[in-house]
Write a structure and sequence with these properties.
By secondary structure, the protein is α+β, with helices and mostly antiparallel strands. About 50% of the residues lie in helices and about 20% in strands.
């Protein structure tokens, strides 16, 4: 009897151990999956984050080496009535914040022959650096002996280098210019350093004025208004015509309906580049060239939107339509009061797709709106001009890109639920 009880206890313990191990394994798997998803999400978001943070940098900070994500700006100090950036320089073992006065001196970089890197002399291990001529604030001297030493088939000049009263013969590895650094608080403290490799005194600072400069000075404010008007009218026009066309092709019976629908749907396969020239000629004949109306009316009809609405309307039970007809509703009444309220996901899907297409349209505005007609420019044309005008200021270019991408991003975040539902529910039949 005791043996049976002991066996049952062992089985219970084993079952508890298995359950605990299974729970631990499940949590490990979940944690690993979450870490993987977070890493992938970060990789997907990194280009967007880089664009946003770069738009908040100064032009100098963009070219910082090595590159960094967050925006920093130099801290300056006043010296003799002018502002100079501060550098962190070590003088006599003590770190000081010093400024580059703009003056420089030629220095020689000396080492022993066995420490010379023949292939890359600038990569040699330097023993001492001294000016090749007398300069303020540097003790020691270097006098050329007229002799050379051969290392790896290359000849290097020998100098008598004197430091703290002791002289030794060293080889000149290479020559270079160093900037004259002064402590603004103690102007008597002078040293020389390479301004390109010396770290600057910086602070984290977001350059919000980049957005003000782009919007107010680069014509982006007018372009945003034009783009918003064009995008709204194109989106509204396509949604309305698609609702009408989708209802007609899905619920109304007439001769040749399916053939007309197939021909209309086949226009999706026509490349846009084939339509550019005849469409441009038509706009010239009508007199719409260089006008915003040329960006609106030709694009309020879409075969894709009609197909999308037709496929969604097919899924709506006919009994609802028949009940509405018995209540005396007309075709337009049935469409507006029955079909439209049930078509929220499909309408949201088409609205988002059309909005993104109209907002980001570039080729047709570039063709129909001339470069000099800046009052009628849309965002894409202004960004193209900004790219040419601010080639040396990538922070300004990315500021314009961030401003242009913000409205579509906000729209997608607000309507993503309807967008996902529309993708899932349309095209079932």
């Amino acid at each position: 009897m005791a043996t049976n009880i002991k066996t049952q206890v062992n089985y219970a313990e084993l079952a508890a151990i298995r359950e605990r191990n299974e729970l631990i394994r499940l949590w490990v798997v979940r944690i690993a999956v979450y870490i993987l998803l977070i890493a992938v999400a970060f990789l997907m978001l990194f280009p967007f984050l880089y664009m946003v943070f770069t738009s908040l940098k100064t032009a100098t900070d963009v070219f910082h080496s090595p590159p960094r994500l967050l925006p920093y700006s130099s801290i300056t100090a006043e010296y003799e009535g002018e502002q100079y950036p501060l550098y962190i320089v070590t003088v006599d073992g003590q770190e000081r914040q010093m400024i580059d006065t703009g003056d420089s001196a030629r220095f020689g970089f000396f080492t022993t022959p066995d420490l010379i890197n023949v292939d890359e002399p600038r990569q040699s291990q330097i023993v001492v650096q001294l000016p090749l001529e007398a300069v303020e604030g540097v003790a020691g001297s270097a006098v050329e002996t007229g002799q050379t030493v051969e290392v790896g088939g290359e000849a290097f000049d020998l100098f008598d280098v004197t430091i703290d009263g002791q002289t030794q013969q060293l080889a000149l590895a290479y020559r270079g210019g160093l900037a004259r650094m002064i402590d603004p608080n103690e102007p008597s403290v002078v040293t020389y350093a390479n301004a390109r490799t010396t770290p600057q005194v910086e602070r984290l600072e977001f350059q919000w004025r980049n957005y003000e400069a782009v919007i107010n000075q680069r014509n982006l404010d007018r372009s945003l208004i034009n783009t918003a008007v064009v995008t709204f009218l194109v989106t509204a026009g396509q949604v309305i015509t698609s609702l009408l066309g989708g209802y007609a092709f899905s619920r109304m019976r007439f001769r040749g309906r399916d053939a007309v629908f197939l021909v209309y749907l086949g226009t999706i396969m026509i490349p846009f580049v084939v339509l550019i020239i005849p469409l441009y000629q038509l706009m010239v004949v009508i007199g719409w060239q260089d006008h915003l109306v040329a960006l609106i009316l030709p694009w309020i009809f879409t075969a894709y939107g009609t197909f999308l609405m037709r496929q969604f309307f097919i899924t709506i039970p006919k009994e609802l339509e028949e009940a509405a007809q018995l209540d005396g509703l007309s075709r337009f009444g049935i469409l507006w009061r029955v079909f439209v309220p049930l078509s929220g996901p499909a309408i949201a899907t088409q609205a988002i797709i059309t909005f993104l297409y109209a907002w980001n349209s570039f080729i047709w505005p570039l063709v129909i709106i001339s470069e000099g007609n800046t009052p009628n420019h849309v965002v894409t044309l202004t960004l193209n001009q900004l790219r040419n005008a601010a080639q040396s200021e990538p922070n300004i270019m990315l500021t314009g890109a961030a401003v242009a991408i913000l409205p579509p991003l906000i729209l997608f975040i607000l309507a993503q639920r309807y967008f996902v539902e529309g993708i899932a529910n349309t095209g079932l039949k």
